[in-house]
TrEMBL record:
<keyword id="KW-0436">Ligase</keyword>
<dbReference type="GO" id="GO:0004818">
    <property type="term" value="F:glutamate-tRNA ligase activity"/>
</dbReference>
<dbReference type="InterPro" id="IPR020058">
    <property type="entry name" value="Glu/Gln-tRNA-synth_Ib_cat-dom"/>
</dbReference>
<comment type="function">
    <text>Catalyzes the attachment of glutamate to tRNA(Glu) in a two-step reaction: glutamate is first activated by ATP to form Glu-AMP and then transferred to the acceptor end of tRNA(Glu).</text>
</comment>
<comment type="similarity">
    <text>Belongs to the class-I aminoacyl-tRNA synthetase family. Glutamate--tRNA ligase type 1 subfamily.</text>
</comment>
<dbReference type="GO" id="GO:0005524">
    <property type="term" value="F:ATP binding"/>
</dbReference>
<dbReference type="InterPro" id="IPR049940">
    <property type="entry name" value="GluQ/Sye"/>
</dbReference>
<dbReference type="InterPro" id="IPR014729">
    <property type="entry name" value="Rossmann-like_a/b/a_fold"/>
</dbReference>
<dbReference type="InterPro" id="IPR033910">
    <property type="entry name" value="GluRS_core"/>
</dbReference>
<keyword id="KW-0030">Aminoacyl-tRNA synthetase</keyword>
<dbReference type="InterPro" id="IPR000924">
    <property type="entry name" value="Glu/Gln-tRNA-synth"/>
</dbReference>
<dbReference type="GO" id="GO:0000049">
    <property type="term" value="F:tRNA binding"/>
</dbReference>
<keyword id="KW-0547">Nucleotide-binding</keyword>
<dbReference type="Pfam" id="PF19269">
    <property type="entry name" value="Anticodon_2"/>
</dbReference>
<dbReference type="InterPro" id="IPR045462">
    <property type="entry name" value="aa-tRNA-synth_I_cd-bd"/>
</dbReference>
<dbReference type="InterPro" id="IPR004527">
    <property type="entry name" value="Glu-tRNA-ligase_bac/mito"/>
</dbReference>
<dbReference type="GO" id="GO:0005737">
    <property type="term" value="C:cytoplasm"/>
</dbReference>
């Protein structure tokens, strides 16, 4: 079998995290099987179309590195055609859907419906009052051919509906097993709307068939639509594809992931400084666990391990803390040049300091950074020392006099540092430790007041890193201020 998957989003806004996972699963499966993934834009609901959504989608896929084989792509911001296969934009394929809808009417598998919106609204209201399922009552199914022809010739507005047969519809799902739904629960779904546009159900089946899609991998919210699609495949006499419906992504409280409880747009995460590689690694594991003892995977490793049978049925919790941890791990793996490029991209100004100082801050923060949008606030922590109480300079069971003694010694020692020491972080650290060890002093009695004097905070970078970043002049000035605080209180 020549495997072909597809990612088929609607251009109704941003690409959702769940949509990115769907695209990635299709991509991984196609790569694993040596097949192709198609990109198709499902824009038949023109009322929900959002300007710029397609361009945003293409930009996001390009950034994350999810490559599709056919479909629309962007050149200088304009949608172009690739080869002989695209662009796969449904609104440009209306004649195909109209032709197939009328073929179903001719074969008795669908029928014309002329009911007004007012009648349908009234029908729905009556069914809701009676606590009945809201379904079309087949009012137009009994129309004679002559009546239908007359109404069509008069230009009366119509839709085409699927004629759902009696019985039940079953299909196999790779993840969930065999699913059977009674046909009486399936509405005579509209296939072709009065404006000539197909509904999702007709368009998706026609496109998946003619595009040669062998495996449909999508979210579980589409399971209820599958019986309609299976009925359409059978009505056309087409072979069914393989279905695989992946679990929902849930908030911590197990509600469906939504913008009300945090960001859900992929672009929002990228704008905050989450790395594309970290996002892909994270979302791939939302419902799929290749190995129990591993969390960090390259795309090639995920491809090698990926199998639809390994995907869980139950919903996957979106754990922001885990994403932060994973992003931090990826940041630390970045080559230095790439890391610095990201830092510079997220540094909003030069903060009035030298590039050398900024570079030192970037270097020190690499081991602690979670997201790149933290960079501006991290820089501020080095540049602005907050007002602090003298008591903060005292380490645990020590006292102000002990802190004063070490601050004086440190000030003298740092003043005498050779210029080469100030340029070399390991040399600074070595010199401070020599003072501690040669005098047999508990390290906290020295390092704690030194760090507080340089940062003004209870939590900060190490005192060695602070000395290196601040440089000689700024470091000595901060130590002198701390010493004055201690002297004034002793």
């Amino acid at each position: 079998m020549n495997v072909k998957t597809r990612f088929a989003p609607s251009p109704t806004g941003f690409l959702h995290i769940g949509g990115l996972r769907t695209a990635f699963y299709n991509y991984l499966f196609a790569r694993k099987q040596g097949g192709k993934m198609v990109l198709r834009i499902e824009d038949t609901d023109q009322q929900r179309y959002v300007e710029g959504a397609i361009e945003s989608l293409l930009r996001t896929l390009a950034i994350t590195g999810i490559i599709y084989e056919e479909g629309p792509f962007s050149v200088n911001g304009t949608l172009e055609q690739r080869g002989d296969h695209g662009p796969y934009i449904q609104s440009q394929r209306l004649a195909i859907y109209q032709k197939h809808a009328k073929e179903l009417v001719e074969s008795g598998k669908a029928y014309y419906c002329f009911c007004s919106s007012d009648r349908l609204a009234q029908l729905r209201y009556q069914q809701e009052i009676a606590k009945m399922p809201t379904k079309y009552d087949r009012h137009c199914l009994s129309l004679s051919k002559e009546e239908i022809t007359k109404r069509l010739e008069q230009g009366e507005s119509y839709v085409i509906r699927l004629l759902v047969p009696e019985g039940e519809t079953s299909f196999e799902d790779v993840i969930r097993g065999r699913i059977t739904i009674a046909n009486q629960e399936v509405d005579d779904q509209v296939l072709l709307k009065s404006d000539g546009f197909p509904t999702y159900h007709l368009a998706v089946v026609v496109d998946d068939h003619y595009m040669g899609i062998t495996h449909i991998i999508r979210g579980e919210e589409w399971i209820s639509s599958v019986p309609k699609h299976v009925l359409l495949y059978r009505a056309f006499g087409w072979e069914l594809p393989v279905f695989a419906h992946v679990p929902l992504i849930l908030n911590e409280d197990r509600s469906k992931l939504s913008k009300r409880q945090g960001d859900v747009a992929v672009e929002d995460y990228l704008a905050k400084g989450y790395l594309p590689e970290a996002l892909l690694n994270f979302i791939a594991l939302l419902g799929f666990n290749p190995k129990g003892n591993q969390e960090i995977y390259s795309v090639s490793e995920l491809t090698e391990e990926f199998a639809l049978e390994k995907i869980n049925k139950s919903g996957a919790i979106f754990n922001r803390e885990k994403l932060d941890w994973m992003n931090g791990m990826y940041i630390r793996q970045l080559p230095e040049e790439t890391y610095l490029e990201y830092c510079q991209k997220f540094t909003l100004s030069d903060f009035g300091v030298s590039q050398e100082k900024l570079q030192r801050i970037y270097h020190v923060e690499k081991e602690r950074l979670v997201r790149f949008d933290e960079i501006p606030s991290k820089i501020q922590e080095y540049l602005i020392i907050p007002e602090y109480d003298v008591a903060l300079l005292v380490w645990k069971k020590s006292d102000v006099l002990d802190a004063k003694k070490h601050m004086e010694a440190l000030l003298r020692m740092c003043t005498d540092f050779p210029e080469a020491t100030w340029e070399d972080l390991p040399l600074i650290e070595k010199a401070i430790w020599q003072y501690i060890e040669s005098n047999e002093i508990p390290s906290g009695n020295v390092l704690w007041p030194l760090r507080v004097a340089l940062s003004g905070a209870q939590h900060s970078s190490s005192p060695f890193e602070l000395l290196w970043v601040c440089g000689k002049e700024e470091s000595l000035q901060r130590l002198q201020c701390a010493l004055q605080k201690v002297a004034a209180s002793s």
